[in-house]
Structures are given as structure tokens and as C-alpha cells.
Amino acid sequence: MAPAPTVGVLALQGDFEEHLDALDALDVPAAPVRTADELARVGALIVPGGESTAMAKLMDAYGLREPLRAFARSGSPVWGTCAGMILLAERIVEGRPEPLGLIDMLVRRNGFGRQVDSFETDVDFAGLDGGPFHAVFIRAPAVVEIGPAVEVLARLDDGTVVAARQGNLLVTAFHPELTTDRRLHAHFAAMLAVRA
Length: 196
Ligand code: GLN
Fold this sequence. Notes:
This protein has helices spanning 16-25, 36-40, 52-61, 65-73, 83-88, 183-195, and strands at 7-10, 30-33, 44-47, 78-81, 89-92, 103-108, 118-123, 133-138, 142-146, 151-155, 161-166, 169-172. Helix content is 27%, strand content 30%. The structure holds glutamine.
């Protein structure tokens, strides 16, 4: 049997360790990705939460921008959480940092304002068995507009989109790696298994 394909986690900045731990807990082969060579060795990639400006700078300094675009455009699954969602977006309201321009959405950084800087709530996630997902939002981005090819997977009670998918691209505004619920990591690993 061929070895299970590895899920990479972009490990430039932010909470990549928590994603690696989550994958580990599921026995999904996982590896940090910091270079184009390391990216070439994985079948899927998580872009974690953190600080999108810092991550974008490091991405450019490490020459990863074009390899990341090519990786996603080749159909490999890519999941952006929080700052990762900002980086995957087609456009961001503030114009900076320059996102990768992959998923057809307009995103506003720190989109929930100061009063609700960070909050937690249960969301219904389309296609996920086992009930609502407890979602942790930390200075989270808000989805302002989505294109027709984007499928909404979860919304807040007020209708705000907090998870979506466009083909091989998955985004969540919240941080599934900060809870012990591994269902979304399993869901993402399954996107790779289907492709592999
Ligand atoms: N507010 C951060 C940014 O703009 C994202 C926060 C997060 O990833 N938890 O990059």
C-alpha cells in the first residue's frame, strides 16, 4: 500500500504547532512547510492563524508566493484558518497584505470590531456529522462578499459567513485547532484522501 499522503502546515508564523498536533492526534501524517521543496513533498496544506501581514512578508521572503499559488491551482487541498483565510482570499478590504488571490471572496481583517475582539460560539457546519462545531474567533476576519463558485459551509446566527469552500480550497474564519474537536481536521484530511 502506498504511504498515506502528508498534510503540510505552513510554518512561517502563527499557530502551526496546534495544527500539527491536531493532525497527529488523528494519525494523519503531517509536516511543517517553510520552503518550496517542503511544499513539493506534501499533498495538502493548512495555512494557519496568526498575523497575516507578518505571514505574507515571510512568504515573500521565503519565495513561497508563486509555489503556493501553483500548489493550490493544481488542485491540491488548501485550508486557510483565520489569518490563513485572509491570505487565501481574492481581495481584502484593506488592500494589504497582498493576498494569494485564490478563493473568490472579499475579506475584512479584524472584521468583528473591538467589542467582540474574540468570542466563541457553536456553528452548524454543512456536511459535518456529530452536531454543531464550537468555533473560537480571535480578531477574526469577516467575509464581506463571496463569488458564485463559493459554497457557504457555516454562518453565524446573523448570517455572517464563517466557513466556505471553493473546490479544493477551504476557509474558516475561526480556529478549529484551538479546541479538542478534530472533526474539521479529519474533514480536510479526507479532501486529500479523495484526491490521492
Ligand atoms: N487579525 C489577524 C490578521 O489580520 C488574524 C487573527 C488570527 O489569525 N487569529 O492577520
